[in-house]
Specification:
Elements lengths: L1 E7 L3 H17 L3 E7 L3 H13 L6 E5 L3 H6 L7 H7 L11 H6 L10 E6 L1 E6 H6 L11 H13 L5 E5 L4 H10 L6 H4 L13 H15 L3 E3 L7 H7 L3 E7 L3 H7 L5 E4 L17 E7 L5 H14 L2 H11 L6 H9 L2 H4 L5 H7 L15 H16 L5 H22 L3
Parallel strand pairs: 1-2, 1-3, 6-7, 6-8
Antiparallel strand pairs: 3-10, 4-10, 5-8, 5-9
Helix pairs in contact: 1-14, 8-10, 14-15, 18-19
The structure holds SN-glycerol-3-phosphate.
């Protein structure tokens, strides 16, 4: 059989499920063999793929996180756009079959989908119902606003129900990018970068400054604990060990939550907002990753990739992946299938992510973002956040510096990709 290598960044429960999906596809036919290879974190996988392409050692398929989209789109010679692949191989591929917020994020200006939506997520709130009860809070009521997050956290910490009120994965993605979208605040010029390479970051506005200042204050008061750089993986650990009563993380953290939170009950809720800034928060934005096809392989490989993509997009395959992991259902058919199976009724909270990302009418500030060199910029934002937590800078200085350093990265990217 023709081997198709698939590099991915899915560890733990997610990695096992990826292996299972590939194995099932391989069993379903005999011409192609998909071989998934775990390459580390999202940034590590992207870096490895770029290096491999330069050395002509690239895999056929690579999973790239949503913020690597700008970089992949600019790497024109390296990428075989998915809409073109599916057309060339005569596989059915209808843009309209995908959920609207997913398709918009991965399309070019002509509406062509460049990479296959596979594991799209959005961040949500997870909370420990047992700790809520111990603190004298109603376990069925999640905090809606940041004011309530603060109040609930105070109760949790002062009652001794848990050491920390809340933590968060991804300070960048959750507390800065999604935070800006929810509060309808611009993240960058030119529609958050969708309008071209000349965009500049603007996420140092008063609303973001107020939030970062509060996070610092809440850390000093013992209510908030930083989950660590970039992905903030310690957030999950502190939630599972019941050190922190609340965490904010990808909806795709659901499988890990279900498998690790065995000693306590978990509630799922939308992300909080400042009700003095916005009365009806906007939709949250996409995270997770898509599958990019790389150039330089033979015709048989691409035929197999196209067949595998058709398999991956099947309602039952997508619905199974979505229901197991917490990633979004991706296609309308997979969502409908879950509804007809009664999945959402049987699993309260499992559709919080879908409702949050689909709510209201998206504004230019809540459609997502697309910037080059953004992987590096996320590291910069984290460094500045740590400087804030360490008391080396105040929130305004930290965000101003993240914007200034980020704009340099944008100009470098613009220069490198000038046509
Ligand atoms: O944890 P994931 O896979 O939902 O990804 C989170 C962020 O979107 C990564 O950029």
């Amino acid at each position: 059989a023709t081997e198709i290598t698939w590099w991915h960044a899915m560890g733990g429960e997610l990695g096992k499920k990826v292996d299972e999906i590939a194995a099932k596809f391989n069993e379903s036919q005999s011409e192609y063999k998909v071989v998934p290879v775990y390459k580390g974190t999202y940034p590590e996988t992207l870096t490895a793929a770029i290096a491999a392409f330069r050395a002509n050692q690239q895999p056929a398929i690579v999973q790239v996180f949503e913020v690597g989209t700008g970089t992949m789109m600019a790497a024109k010679g390296a990428v075989y756009p998915v809409y073109k692949l599916m057309k060339d191989e005569g596989e059915p591929f209808d843009t309209k079959s995908f959920l609207a917020p997913v398709v918009g994020y991965y399309s070019d200006t002509q509406g062509n989908i460049l990479s296959l939506p596979f594991n799209s997520s959005t961040p949500i709130m997870y909370y420990n119902k047992d700790v809520f009860k111990k603190a004298g809070l109603d376990p069925e009521v999640a905090p809606k606003t940041w004011k309530e997050v603060e109040e609930f956290s105070k109760k949790i910490v002062t009652s001794g129900a848990a050491k920390c009120g809340f933590t968060s994965a991804w300070i960048t993605w959750v507390q800065t990018e999604n935070f800006s979208a929810l509060h309808d605040q611009p993240y960058g010029t030119l529609e958050n970068g969708f309008g071209g390479l000349k965009s500049e970051f603007t996420f140092n506005g008063p609303v973001q400054v107020k939030h970062w200042a509060n996070l610092k204050k809440w850390q000093d008061e013992g209510l908030f604990k930083y989950g660590g750089p970039v992905g903030g993986d310690n957030a999950a650990t502190m939630f599972f060990s019941q050190e922190c009563a609340i965490t904010m993380n990808s909806s795709g953290g659901r499988a890990a939550v279900i498998n690790n939170a065995k000693d306590f009950k978990v509630g799922f809720a939308p992300l909080p907002y400042y009700d003095d800034v916005i009365k009806e928060p906007k939709n949250s934005i996409i995270g997770g990753a898509t599958l990019w096809v790389l150039n330089g392989k033979d015709k048989a490989t691409y035929k197999g990739v196209a067949k595998f993509f058709t398999y991956l997009s099947k309602p039952e395959v997508q619905a199974d992946w979505h229901q197991y992991t917490g990633y979004l259902p991706i296609t309308n058919a997979a969502y409908e299938l879950g509804k007809s199976q009664g999945y959402y009724e049987k699993n309260p909270g499992s559709d919080v992510s879908i409702k949050q990302i689909m709510r209201g009418t998206p504004s230019a500030n809540s459609k997502g973002l697309r910037f080059g060199n953004y992987t590096q910029e996320r590291t910069v934002i984290d460094e500045e956040f740590q400087a804030l937590l360490a008391g080396k800078k105040d929130a305004k200085q930290a965000l101003d510096s993240a914007v200034e350093r980020g704009n340099k990265l944008l100009r470098e990217f613009e220069k490198a990709n000038a046509n």
